Amino acid sequence: MLQAKNKLGLVLFPAFDWAISETHPERKERLLYTQDQIFEEGITDIEGIHLYNPAIAEEKDILRVHFPVPDVQTRVSQSHLVSIGGAITAGEKVMTGEVDKSFALVRPPGHHAFRVVYGDRGFCIVNVEAVMLENLRAQFGDLKVAIIDTDAHHGDGTEDIFWNDKDTLFISFHQDGRTIFPGTGFVEDFGGPSAIGYNVNIPLAPGTGEEGFLYVLDHVVMPILEDYQPDLIINSAGQDNHYTDPLTNMNFTAQGYAKLNERLNPDIAVLQGGYSIEGALPYVNLGIILAMAGLNYSQVIEPDYEAKKTRQTADVTEYTKEISELVLERWKDRDNIARKVRAEKDVIEKEQQIYYDTDGIMENQTQSFILCEKCSGINTIRSKNDTRVHIFAITIPRDACKACVDKGHRLYKGTSEIKYNKTYLQDRVNEYYISK
Amino acid sequence: MIVGLDMGGTNVDAVIIKQRKIIKTAKHPIDQADLFASIWTTLEKLLADIDITAIRQINLSTTVSTNAIVEEKTSPVAMFIQSGPGVPHEFLAKGEKNFFLSGYIDHRGRVVKKMDPQEIKERLNQLKQENIQDFGIVTKFSTRNPEVERRIKDILTPHSFSSITMGHTLSGKLNFPRRVNTTYLNAAVSQTFHRFSTHMKKALDEMGLSNIPIHVLKADGGTMQISHAEKLPVETILSGPAASLMGIHTMFASEKDALLLDMGGTTTDIFFLLEGVPLFEPLGIQMGAFPTLIRSIYSQSIGLGGDSSIDIIDGDLIIGPERKGKPLAFGGPVPTPTDAMIVCGLYSEGDYDKAFAGIKSLGDTLGLSANKMATIIMEEMATTIQKKVNALLAEINSQPVYTVREVLENRQVKPEEIQIIGGPAKALTPLLASAFNIPCKYPEHYQVANAVGAALAKITTEVTLEADTTQKIVSIPELDIYEKISRNFSLADARERTLASLKELAVQLGATESEIEAEITEESSFPMVRGFSTSGENIRVKAQIKPGFIHKLEGIDHHVTSKE
Questions:
Q1: What whole-number distance in Å separates Cα of residue A361 and Cα of residue B482?
Q2: Cis bond leading into A182, ω under 30°?
Q3: What is the C-alpha to C-alpha distance for residues B195 and B131, in angstroms, rounded to an integer?
Q4: I need a surface site. Which of A96, B64, B460, B506 has the fewest CB within 10 A?
Q5: Which of B176, B532, B533 is nearest residue A40 as measured by Cβ atoms?
Q6: Cβ-defined contact of B402 to A290 (cutoff 8 Å)
Q7: Is the pLDDT at B18 greater than 90, yes or no?
């Protein structure tokens, strides 16, 4: 009988009766073979590994993080509430100490969902990790958290949600945005005015393999985490970096994922993307589970694995070293950069154009960050989409000072409801979420 | 007439049931050194003065295989295991000889790397020299593709070994480590069980009973004819609790959720019914240190019984888990719950004075009268049972589910009544009804419950079908079926085929076609998409014959107590 070194909680929720469509990558079959592999390997019998059922998330959980247009009910299905509930359960079990670590293998994923939600984007509707994290903060108090997004696509939604949040360090390493969806994730995108430096993008070259990923982990991610000293490390565990993934061009392996997980040592992992459902997912997830449980994963190998197939070129190695150096330097220089950016300004604006590829909607938005000496300050979003919906959203962040809380409420009251299709107020201090 | 026989811990119990009633019972102590003789003597006692031509069937619940495993008197086994990549496999070495072979089958049942027959051939001579006669063969995902296991068996067959067990024939469930364990155990008890069944058939022959079907009880509360048991002797293990559960079930025949209790001298066994159907272990029973895939009813035991020793430690009342001997009232060394029952006037056997003295002495430590002490002891028993049952239900009710529908449905086991048998049943009934706030039932006299359970158990079994229309293959491992299908094989076809296979298996177990009640328990069909279109369907169907009893047992008075 195998005994896990770390008590590991697993939420295995393959949502077999839900799909975006029958033939979409995000379909019923997606986690079927992964579940088969996990069961056949006898994971459920390993002492110290415990399976949990997902809770069901509530509207309030969504409203803490998102502005769903027109409302939660229209945008968010039961399956999503269960998927998020699965992540919340995984998080809770770690926070209460019932387990040492947990892994939520849930679908659908969420890291492409921004704060404003008009529909499905990159297979995501609501941001599973963000909603989970804010639920944990509401339950267990202030937490300093690092989210490490290892999905091959830039976690643009998560970046947007925590853009101005210094207490949530977001590190994403992904295939360079110039070569793949969503087209963002560059080093210059360094965080909002109150969190400059706390959004770290590491764009990688197509063809990066085990060597490159582990290099970035060892030379950029771990040193940054050493500086940051988070209370919690969350791994947004996307698996589409795998050499067999149909949607990307990277060369990562099951062994690589397991090693990464062992070294990163996250408290919570949540499944993201990954659509090589037969050739990668069963093995990668098995590797992650064994690594998190502290068990021997050295024999987890894909049936078609060949070392030479997955080796990266010398150019890629060179590039990886350069980008790593650059990112680490900027991190070390973040306070300087912050001072320069904030210099005597009252408001800093950020414009974005967001394309909802799955639903075919184009959004234009302007975010305004109102600086404050005492706290991270309130921020607003003016957003318009190409079906002529126009909304205005106000966020009062968790750490808002009294003056900013008042400012936010006054702004909401002062905005006439006929001006926009919908106006939202998200008051994180008082857990108060309304719209008109 | 049906004959039922159960080998317990101390005695063999036997019963004859005619026209739904018990017409005769027999009991005989077990000689652990000669289990067969113990059974035979009991049977002779039972059948004396009985018209044996009227016997329709003999059902037995035997501990022959279980004991061989527990006492480590099993045959040495050589295991051929193809585990491929994945979780480290060293801990799967259960046999005397274990060979980990090259090759690998993936989750779709595709042979990704071939097996090398030489790896087996070159070991055979040595194994023969070491006189190993029993073999186990297991590969990963053999339930989806049994070909490698079959090929290895083909290499072994010409050598006329005593037994060869292929993993996929034991269960359709996924769990490779358990499949290895179950295969090993089957090979290990094969010769032991064969000796027993040979004796049995010979002796019945000599008695003129050679035409009567002999059935053996399984841990899932169903029976199988002895010829089938000879192929799968591992399924005869741990049938005792199943006999107990069926015995209680035939008495009250409830169709609700229920809690069933069998309180013996040392332990209390706990079972559940879910809408009248016994609750099962999700994967299979645990045999000592071996988790297995052997289909089994759910049963838990606590060290609390009529003869449990009672002590007061630091002002706390401790009952069990040990049994130090008979109750004081029967000459034993320490006070027991039976003595408390005697003091309360709920049991009229034994020496009242001895019981009273012992209970009074306990009461003195706590400043309580003997009567009060006795009452508190009984209440504590009910409370202990309640706490344990609630903890078990919490665990049972948080079993993982995998669809949105099941999460939302959240079906929980919630007993609506308690059924209890055993010495302290009558005394505990009002206390349990009160503690759980549901009616509690017990029978007036019920000495041979396990034997009745064995006698009236129906045939039950399950089959698993998995079809892959891209590969055009269907696999039904319990029947060793692995065949081609057309691309158009549908879920409806799968259902039909599964039910037909189930009936076939049931007949192999000894059922008559007319008495087979089959039901589909799980079904799903996943479109498999490659590129941008559907390449086929991945279809999975499970079916079973619901476990149950041949008929209700009549002629026993039973009592119901509701909470006052």
A1: 49
A2: yes
A3: 18
A4: A96
A5: B176
A6: no
A7: yes
